[in-house]
Amino acid sequence: MKRLIALFGLVLFAAACAPQADRTTLPWENGKLAVTADGRYLQHENGAPFFWMGETGWLLPERLTREEADFYLDACRDAGFNVVQVQTVNGVPARNAYGKLSMPEGFDFSKIDAEGDEGYWQHMDYIVRKAEQNGIYIGMVCIWGGLVKKGLMNAEQAVSYGTFLADRYKDAPNIVWIIGGDIRGDVETEVWETLARTIKGIDRNHLMTFHPFGRTSSIYWFHNADWLDFNMFQSGHRRYDQTRGDGDDSAQASIAEDNWRYVEAGLGMEPRKPILDGEPSYEEIPQGLHDPSEPWWKAPDVRRYAYWSVFAGAFGHTYGHNSIMQMHSGDKVGGYGAVKSWKEGLQDPGFNQMQHLKRLILAFPFFERVGDQSVIAGENGFRYDRAIATRGTDYLLVYTYTNRPMRIDLTKIAGEQKQVWWYSPVDGSLQYAGTVEDGIREFRFEGPEGPANDHVLIAFDSTKNYLTEGQQSL
């Protein structure tokens, strides 16, 4: 009997140690991230595509305990996010949920590991490891821009801080470095250049970008910097008629929400570098940020920003929610009028609808996709009525926010006949619309017209099997 028990124990041990057939592959198992040769997208070393689906968890390191961080990162994983952007420090020093400081000895980090298990950087290490287990990259905004603007870190201190960060996280597989933090690149430029070059001098394993001020783009200052691997812009939180406080002096109210314009401008630069909207309007935040009596951005708005930028050619997108980004407890009114708790925010529709965009893009040949507005025949719509088109060799996708009739030039892709489908950004459902002959055709989804009635038209060469008749989701 003892021998049988021992054998049974060995079987259980072997089963526990054996690779699991249904285990999800972690992104970095495909190798490090790199920019594609054409400068449009990101891929892994083995050629696997990487579509950035980001979530804005700015105050995660400062406000959540380990148990709460587990809950949040699990929710991000389940909702399809593969990047979480954080403020690594939001103060000099910053303080975490356990009361531990990020810089107890200023910019001398030689004794930082004596802080104990709940120390600021030990807690950050835990968050990075937990995100790694969930297949999530941490986009580390090293220090918030306003702190540097106030003189709380100079170029010499940036060397000490950058060296510490790079040494600590250079071997973590799931780091993306983000310089800046809601600031123009022509403010304290020497500090940002020093911080970036210090980190890159030690860590060649991870990509790096710059997070700029609202309605500005990193292309304005750092496009040609050798440390900047991809561009990031912040389309911001203001609507068409709100311009006060914009960082971009050339911003016009008439085009203010058109985040697709930043994508087109970025991809028009030489040499080309990938670009994405790293901070669009947040779900559940007042339009214009500062007056809670203004209308609030809702799920349809965050969907529109996501599809507009990605279909224009962005390599991914970052979503945000007012309560989640500040990890608001919900016990009183938070910043920018936030009333929900961050956990309640995780249940909101916009947070849970971003995964449908990611699935859609990954369902078709990834690297051949380009934004191509010539797909839309004739005059396109204005503001919310504008349709945005993206295509590959034998497929095209067109996003409409208002469900107005669209004339689509099907000759832009291969195939004498095209299968046509409608895709819902709300629930990810598919609806087959039949097969049509090549040429310019008019399409409109059978439903109401007007803002927030968004759909995606899918058309592809009928000889392809990207979707099968009767398929209801991706």
Write the layout of secondary structure elements.
Layout: H1 2-17, E1 33-35, E2 42-44, E3 49-50, E4 52-56, H2 60-63, H3 66-78, E5 83-87, H4 120-133, E6 137-141, H5 145-149, H6 155-169, E7 175-180, H7 189-202, E8 208-211, E9 216-217, E10 231-234, H8 260-267, E11 275-277, H9 299-312, E12 316-319, H10 322-325, H11 342-345, H12 349-362, E13 370-371, E14 388-391, E15 395-400, E16 406-409, E17 417-423, E18 430-437, E19 440-443, E20 455-461
Parallel strand pairs: 4-5, 4-12, 5-6, 6-7, 7-8, 10-11
Antiparallel strand pairs: 1-2, 2-3, 9-10, 13-14, 14-15, 15-20, 16-19, 17-18, 17-20
Question: Could you list some keywords that capture this structure?
Answer:
20 strands, 6-stranded antiparallel β-sheet, alpha/beta, 474 residues, single chain, disordered N terminus, 6-stranded parallel β-sheet
Protein model, in words:
The protein is of the alpha/beta class and 474 residues long. 26% of the residues lie in helices and 19% in strands. It is built from twelve helices and 20 strands. It has helices at 2-17, 60-63, 66-78, 120-133, 145-149, 155-169, 189-202, 260-267, 299-312, 322-325, 342-345, 349-362, and strands spanning 33-35, 42-44, 49-50, 52-56, 83-87, 137-141, 175-180, 208-211, 216-217, 231-234, 275-277, 316-319, 370-371, 388-391, 395-400, 406-409, 417-423, 430-437, 440-443, 455-461. The strands form five sheets. A six-stranded parallel sheet has the order 8-7-6-5-4-12. Strands 13-14-15-20-17-18 form a six-stranded antiparallel sheet, covered by helices on one side. Strands 1-2-3 form a three-stranded antiparallel sheet, with no helix packed on it. The protein is globular and about 70 Å long. 46% of the residues are buried.
